[in-house]
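In the current project phase, we have settled on a layout for protein records. One protein thus recorded is set out beneath this paragraph:
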Amino acid sequence: MPMITVRPNPDPWLDQLFSTKSAQRGAVVRRSTAWVEREVGHETFQQEIRRRGYHLIRTANQYIVICQNGPIDILL
């Protein structure tokens, strides 16, 4: 089993992720769950999503972040 390495300070990684053009426009950001775990850990990632008021969806091995805090409807 590979060793999981979480950054001692996840803030720069999270700042970079949420400063992308997509995130700034209120669009969607997608990252693999394995990459998130390796970089900052699932709990830290989820806490940051919650702090920002964004929406988080997990599908298969991907996280999908909807970078806006308004209501969403999942249609299908």
User: Anything to note?
Assistant: Strands lie at 28-32, 55-59, 62-66. Residues 11-66 form one domain.
